Amino acid sequence: MTNLGEKLTDEEVDEMIREADVDGDGQINYEEFVKMMMSK
After folding, report:
1. Which of 12, 26, 37, 40 has its CA at a distance of 20 to 30 angstroms from the CA of residue 4?
2. pTM for the complete prediction?
3. CB under 8 A, 24+ apart: contacts of 12-20
4. Contact, 16 vs 9, CB < 8 A?
């Protein structure tokens, strides 16, 4: 995100991960990533 010019706090990054991590395993898999990107 920094490379895209976004300056995010750790809390903002954590929130983004929580929103995208549908199954709650602490990781964003391919399906979760695609779903997140398609909803934006």
Report:
1. 26
2. 0.65
3. none
4. no
